[in-house]
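Chain A, query sequence.
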Amino acid sequence: MLSHLEGSLSGLRYDADQLIGLDPSDGRPLLARYDLKGSRPRRGDSLWRWKDLLPVRDGRFITSLGEGGTPLLDAPRAGRLLGLAHLRIKAESLNPTGSFKARGMAVAVSRAVELGAAHLVAPSAGNAGGALAAYAAAAGVQATVVMPADAPRPNQEEVLVAGARLVLMNGLISDCGRFAGRLAAECEAFDLSTLKEPYRVEGKKTMGFELAEQCGWELPDAVVYPAGGGTGLIGLWKAFAELESLGRIGPRRPRMFAVQSDGCAPYVRAFESGARFAEPWLDARTAAAGIRVPGSVGDFLVLDCLRESEGAGLAVPEPEIREMQARLARAGAGYVSLETAAAALGAAAARECGLVDAGERVVLFDTGAGFKSEAPAVELPAPISADENTWEAALAGLQQTPTGPEGPALPAR
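Chain A, predicted structure.
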């Protein structure tokens, strides 16, 4: 049961039964704390089976579209591609809104509405905005999403289809965040920005609960995760601590790896320099919109997780991300997001530089569906057209261009 809120840096204690954003003492994230006695998972498939470890007090306020309960898939062919013999993929793209953002928004929207919010606002690089729009609609409250003008078109359409208001800004997610904060202050809306309220991370932590359970309560050797705002990594780390307090797991943790594009890598730079906080990244550039985040109010929590786990921050070459998206699909991993493709490059890099052994148990988080990205920029073969008058020509063309199980060749790396 939810007990109180705690300043993640200050350690100060706050009443949980109020609409509150950041720690009033220092402007850093607040974390939810629980009375863990008697807490246990319940029957069911959604993340709400962990209700005892989630913040909504009155079940009537739970807003659910069936989020959570995603599979942990064996990926032998993708593992061979990355040089990892025991690779598994946590398929978060199977959430209702096509990404792991559904988890955080389900819990944050439910709790905000329980506490009296009627208008919710958030900046988003893409998937979080769609999730907010979907869950606000399900809860029957108003939502406004602020996105960079170059956010993927499918994400923009998702917001509008669900009935939320969409503001497009020239700039980065950090610019959108500032505008969302002003809108919240002047329009009596509650700001659900990443880590600027306490409960999106609570939805994300259920990934850690599920991972531990799906691994038989023995955590993997390494977890590889694409890092934008960092809520997912923070949530996983928090979940492991709560599970240990419950006696479900022991003190051993996976090495945690945060992967970013070399066009926007504030965590990696801070990790490598030994800094406690990450300086904002200037001129952030990457096609993977979800990790084009130049700074985060919870940066130190991500860096603490990496260091305490003996993991690392890894920057991968931006030009290789789209190509890896296609290579993963041809290796049987499905049409994953560009963010997931970046994480896969990071997994391969970790193995190549000796941070992960080829025979270790590695879990790669697939955080979103590829069809929500913009069209691939890699050179793909042209489709073969056919109608009832051109069947013979089409068949002849297919016979002349045989392919293996991975389809027509991609350009050489």
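The mean pLDDT is 92. The chain has twelve helices and 13 strands.
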